Amino acid sequence: MFSLFFTHELKSFWRSANTGKTLAIKIVMGILILILFMYVLALGLFLDRILEKAQPNENLTVAFCGILLIYYLYDILLRLQLQELPTLKVQPYLHLPVKRNTVVGYLAFTALFSFFNLWPIVLFVPFILKIILPASGALAVVTFIIAIIALALLNNYLALYIKRKANLNGFVLLIAGGLLALISAGDFVWHLFSLSKISYLFFGNLIKMPALVLLPLILAVVMYYINFAYLKSNLYLEELTTRKNEHKSSTEFPVLDRFGRVGDLVANEIKLILRNKRPRSALTMGLLFMFYGLIFYTNPAMPKGFNIFVGMFMTGIFIINYGQFMFSWQGAHFDGIMVSKVKFADFLKAKYMLFTIVSTVAFLLTVPYAYFGWKIVMIHFIMYIWNIGVNTTVVLFFANRNYKRIDLSKGASFNWEGVGATQLLLSFPLMLMPYLVYWPFIAFGLQNTAYVVLASIGILFIATRNFWIGKLTADFETKKYKIAEGFRNK
């Protein structure tokens, strides 16, 4: 039956109207993945030398065992961002004499064909054969390889389970990312425990007690059956796409009710973000970049002026990531918006409110950087004001010049749909404008004055928001037909 499913998918691919374009993309992606694997293989072949230089006073086997758990921790993080869900159009099979277990089994089986599952083999097996085989024998090699593959499969099905749960509740993905971030911070920032020691506790003893290999195997099998059971119980389309919620307000976000039509539009935008992979990845990446300051604030050699960039980036990364594709997110139903009773001014107000809400949350999450000094928090607040005042207006100005639609049904990884010259042009004013204000004052040693001017400009833009909405609405009226025509081109 699996071969029949595979044949049907091949026929669907070759009979598609976009076969040529899709095939070209797959060939390019295949070449890129092949090049990436060559780099990973080279890293694996020289891993012993890398570990020797990184930890010169440590035994190679001890150092190797210490990095394995850390690798799998970041592997699950990458999978949550980049690994695609295996898909099969199951609806035509549900009314046929095809067992549900067979359909679900095919989905679970095809999930194995991910390049993430090959990475640990290519990366770690060369080291195991070069170092562990001569020192500990063939049995240790076999147990290590089995453990590495089992942990890769555990991560594989765990990531798929989390992403499928996130399709029904977007906060699941945020919670998972937050837990991974807390685990990382607990080791590398707060030093509450050592992931390296925990990793060695298992893999170091694996050499002495090969029976420990059963632990990752059992975990992988359990995670497979959890994933299998979840898929089987949610096989029907309506069960996978609807929320089982008894209470529903007009927006499903009661706090937004008080804002009327604008609140409804913001609520719809939030639903769009949480229910679709690509916009949701912009939100998730924004939360992950809350740790961006740890890279720079712990570096004493960082120039003081770079605080402006870090503050703008952390409090406004969502505006940059999500806003650069405005209004492409609504490309599929933009014609409906054009003929609806929604005023475009309300549409813009909803965008302003969305960016303000997310940036406010981002600023609050950066408050703990007060550990490095309250001046850091002050700079973050100034750039937060700049983001919701100036950068939001700039993003919406360029949105009127974006004619490329985005298909929300497609995944987020390796997807360049909607990317064009507008996104390239947008990056320059967003990055350069605060420095064009900041550096002239710094040249005369007036750093505090520079901060005051940045904050004042941001406040001025916020206070005159209705004026800018009027200007943007008038600008949109001259370009709306060109935007709609561009969004109709698939």
UniProtKB/TrEMBL annotation:
The chain crosses the membrane at residues 23-47, 59-82, 103-125, 131-154, 166-186, 206-226, 281-299, 305-329, 350-371, 377-399, 419-438, 450-469. It comes from the Bacteria. InterPro entries: DUF5687. Keywords: Membrane, Transmembrane, Transmembrane helix. Signal peptide: none annotated. This is Uncharacterized protein. It comes from Mucilaginibacter pallidiroseus.
